[in-house]
Amino acid sequence: MAEPTAQVRESETTEPGHRKVLDAAVSGISGQERPGQVEMADAIAAALDSGRHLLVQAGTGTGKSLGYLAPALIKLVEGSATRIVVATATLALQSQLADNDIPAALAAVKQVTGKQPRHAVLKGRTNYACLYRARSGGADDQAALFGVDDLADTLPSAGSAAEPESALGAEVLRLREWIEEEHDRTGLADRDGAPSHSERAWQQVSIPVRECLGVQRCPYGDSCFVERSRDVARAADLIVTNHALLAINAMHGETALPEHDAVIIDEAHELVSRVTGAASAELSPQAIERVGRRAAGYLEDEVALDLLESADALRAALDESPLERIEDPDSPLGLACATVRTAARRAVSDLTSGGEKADPEQRQAAAAVKEIFDIAERMAGMSQYDVIWVTERERTGREACVAPLSVSGLMRSSIFGARTVVLTSATLKLGGDFGPVAASVGLRPEERDDSVPNGGEGAESDDREGEDPEGPQPWRGLDVGSPFDYPRQGILYIATDLPPPGRDGMAEQTLAEIAELVWAAGGRTLGLFSSRRAAEAAATYVRKQLPKQTILCQGDAQLTELKRRFVAEEESSLFGTLSLWQGVDVPGDTCIQVIIDRIPFPRPDDPLLLARQRSVAEAGGNGFMAVAATHAALLLAQGTGRLIRRISDRGLVAVLDPRLATARYGSFLRASLPAFWPTRDREVAVQALRRLTTPPGTA
């Protein structure tokens, strides 16, 4: 017996620290060891030691969060990293991570090492209340920032007897009381902890970064909630933030986040979209008019009038412009943006001429006008690296938009260039390869090195500080698989007998097929549609054909309420659009079928994606495959991933677009999906669903 005991003790001694932490964390939540999770943790530990970037695909159910937290925290405890940032896609996921996974991981680290790193959650400025705005109430004409339609949105519920103004006022009063309570207890006044409120009410007690007076000049600078949150972050070893703040940090000289040695980016399939959003802007006549009215009291009449009239010039140009990309600086839009730029420049000059003598409201008005100036200048410049286009919104009419043609250069230089980066998601391999996602974030095929680095212990560190960001950025791609047995748990049915989707709405044959599949599944269906119109048409048809079925459709009520009912009412079905393709987690018998009406290609008239396709083609690549097909593959992978969420789940994904099987790009798209058992036979699909819904021993 002595020899095995010695071997066990030797194994315990030599086991890497991150594995011990992972074992303790998994045991702490009564979980089970997953080989993919261990492989992921090993790879991340090696990446943090070697400095080589890592793209790791970890399927649903792998336990990604603990898989990256264990190696990150042990590196912090050991002192081989001074600070690590974890960035996830949304504020909701950020909170979930901070409230659930990090406490479990920290408890495990303390159990294993006796030490516990400090962590902090860091968000953008507008997620924290502003004491100055809350106490001062803003400028006298602050209400001019809100139109009647905006105020109507603040009504607590449909049919409420409250007036819009009183509803908004009551919300703001509740928020101000809560803010004072947060101040007294030295809290952070984080929006997530605020009383129930509307977006418009929150805008009355928070402040955009541009309008912040600064700690030195603000009368409440010593109590600033944002500064408190930054102080907490600077004292932390592990910082949890979101993609948007990571992008802002990259764009503004790394001033938004404290110094850090490594970044772990969760839900990394959304990174490009989030960074693009952070680097984009809009300009509308209404925005110029609101800012102009706000600044008018501090301006000479002529200057104020010029600024307000520039809004009219922009409105006329927008009405004259096509709803597409604009590239000519001498076009009506280009000339109108130049007019706005000139008027805003003069207004900014006058508003800032008083220097420190200007009152706080004037300085805030100057900041708002400066933002108008910056956007107008960017649009008037019509840079080859930007895409400027005209769009039309149902409520507010036409506006000009600008977005970067590509964000890969920004990410390569400002995110990957100075530190080790780990990207992880359930969807990083598109078409069966990491190449498309790697290219989108600025990593090059020739820089890929999938050799296994020398294990975490004693690995040679690659100090990136001071490196040329244009130098090589070696990276590794790793797929650790999934604990799910997709061929046994799920079926992929491609309806090759249906007509290809057209522009005139769904064919009667397709609608009939949806009804039959919902009938076979006894409800229990998540319908993912390419448009609201398609979802509503399908819901109307199925309700008529299956009157006893509960068909919930996006738009019937708030989406959160529809999701709640879908989970609670086992035989219900939920039909909707893009917001349901990602982030919906409905395990068990509530969802045994996912229906996808068509391949989710981007809109053929999307100016930004069209410009990106053209750019790829001009560089000698295949624009359609690099942009449109990659976009569709990512959404398809996310959509089909809604089906199997637990090891016990069983079900069917029905794609009612025959092009997935027949088109040349079909193999690329299919290679991006989970490895379900495939069929093109409708009867096989229907009978499989019937077996899932028929109790054993019944006919």
UniProtKB/TrEMBL annotation:
Its EC number is 5.6.2.3. It is an enzyme of class 5 (isomerase). The keyword Hydrolase applies. This is ATP-dependent helicase DinG. It comes from the Bacteria. InterPro entries: ATP-dep_Helicase_C, DEAD/DEAH_box_helicase_dom, DinG/Rad3-like, Helic_SF1/SF2_ATP-bd_DinG/Rad3, Helicase_ATP-bd, P-loop_NTPase. Residues 439-480 are annotated as: Disordered. Transmembrane segments: none annotated. Residues 459-470 have a biased composition (Acidic residues). It catalyses: ATP + H2O = ADP + phosphate + H(+). Its cofactor is [4Fe-4S] cluster. GO terms for biological process: nucleobase-containing compound metabolic process. The keyword Hydrolase applies. GO terms for molecular function: 5'-3' DNA helicase activity; ATP binding; hydrolase activity, acting on acid anhydrides, in phosphorus-containing anhydrides; nucleic acid binding. Keywords: ATP-binding, Helicase, Hydrolase, Nucleotide-binding. Residues 23-330 form the Helicase ATP-binding domain. Belongs to the helicase family. DinG subfamily. PROSITE patterns: HELICASE_ATP_BIND_2.
